[in-house]
Amino acid sequence: MNIRFYVDPQTGEPHIHNHDVDESEVEDILEVPGEVRSGREGTLVALGRTSSGRYLKVIYKPEVERDGAFVITAYDLRGKALRSYRRRRRRKQK
Predict the structure, then answer these.
(1) Residue 94's pLDDT band (boundaries 50, 70, 90)?
(2) What residue ranges define each of the domains in the chain, with the CATH number in brackets?
(3) Closest by Cα among 16, 79, 82 to 53
(4) What is the reported pTM?
């Protein structure tokens, strides 16, 4: 999968770095997402757990012609959103 990242114009770095997320963690989620939902304006939201055990929410736009994704942002899944995600995963496993 070809993954591109939104670059923050102020820092010149991928925006995900502002949330202390690195590229390999995003790849973990996009390769095997626990859940994918539709977002706004043609985006998708992937939720999942990285190989290191961190739960993330990745917002991206699929690029079918490039067989890839343009990642807009990614950040930790916390609080109620994390509890809901875990609950849905448990229900799905039964």
Answers:
(1) low
(2) 2-93 (3.30.2310)
(3) 82
(4) 0.91
- Matching residue, tokens 């999968």: 1
Average pLDDT rounded to a whole number, residues 20-49: 94
Smallest CA-to-CA distance from 22 within 92, 76, 89 is with 76
CA dihedral 48→41→24→12, nearest 10 degrees, is -140
User: 32 to each of 1, 2, 11, how far by Cα in Å?
Assistant: 12, 15, 29
- Residue 73 CA to residue 13 CA, distance in Å, equals 12
Note whether 9 and 73 are within 8 A (CB): no
Say how far residue 41 (Cα) sits from the centre of its chain.
16
Structure tokens at 66: 């490039």
CA distances from 22 to 40, 74, 94 (A): 23, 9, 32
Residue 6 token pair: 């939104």
